[in-house]
């Protein structure tokens, strides 16, 4: 994976993107830049505008304003040539139920000028043992893997995934993460939307937290943590025997002062920084459970 996006050529570039549905402003001025080979996560609560943004990148939804480039072309007006270089995983792929997995992937491969080897793709998504099974006999998670196989069989340079692991059990989710990491290692640029913070953290080189159609924060998971965790919480048991806590930008000073007042060890001392989850919940206006 390549996290040095500042200098890399952009695979996806979005400036001032806006989209309304009647009275609802779904996307309200989004700017994004995804470098080639990067895994970029769009993270946010329901209705934040993630799917709308990805659908515009796919060229399947019009926009009201803004400049959008995928691999240097505008997906809104580009033709087959660009589409062959972009992989899309549909939420409900209409794979013919009577065909086998192998037949389906081979069938879809024919739509692309230089497809990947269908057998290799089936193995990559973990459906090797189901190669001869009919599509209608697959479980929900297996069906989703087939969707991914159909999204990557064209050998896309950019893969756009909208909530790829919704409905997966934890083991299937882990396997899917490995698949995304393998594709990223091969140099595929991946943009994915997710509700799952741990998924964004596990997969994304960089992520944008989207709320109400805007980018509330952007950066690598480590950068987000660093930028938004300047305040530490110092907790201790006071002279009165009760629990005390203080949010401070200078925890060392607080501890030194407490240490002086206790003449040594501070009872019940605990110093914590916000987790990425705390930061995410704060950015999206949701309450932390802690
Ligand atoms: N086809 C549509 N017609 C009208 N309103 C829409 C349409 N699609 C989305 N919206 C509205 O636009 C807003 C953004 O929706 P969008 O699906 O992009 O959000 P999201 O972040 O992907 O949400 P989720 O995580 O629930 O999928 C929401 O208020 C939604 O109700």
UniProtKB/TrEMBL annotation:
A Pfam family per the record: ABC_tran
Q: How does it sit in the membrane?
A: Peripheral membrane protein
Its keywords, alphabetically, are:
Antibiotic resistance, ATP-binding, Cell membrane, Membrane, Nucleotide-binding, Translocase, Transport
Q: Spell out where the chain crosses the membrane.
A: none
User: An example Gene Ontology cellular component term from the record?
Assistant: plasma membrane
Residue ranges constituting the ABC transporter domain according to the UniProt record: 12-237
SMART domains found in the cross-reference section: AAA (SM00382)
> Does this entry carry the keyword Membrane?
yes
GO BP term, example = response to antibiotic
Q: What is its main location?
A: membrane
GO molecular-function term, one example from the UniProt record = ATP binding
Q: Which SUPFAM superfamilies match?
A: P-loop containing nucleoside triphosphate hydrolases (SSF52540)
- EC number from the UniProt entry: 7.6.2.2
Q: Where in the cell is it found?
A: Cell membrane
Tell me its family: Belongs to the ABC transporter superfamily. Drug exporter-1 (DrugE1) (TC 3.A.1.105) family.
What is the protein name for this chain? Answer: ABC-type xenobiotic transporter
The taxonomy runs:
Bacteria, Bacillati, Actinomycetota, Actinomycetes, Kitasatosporales
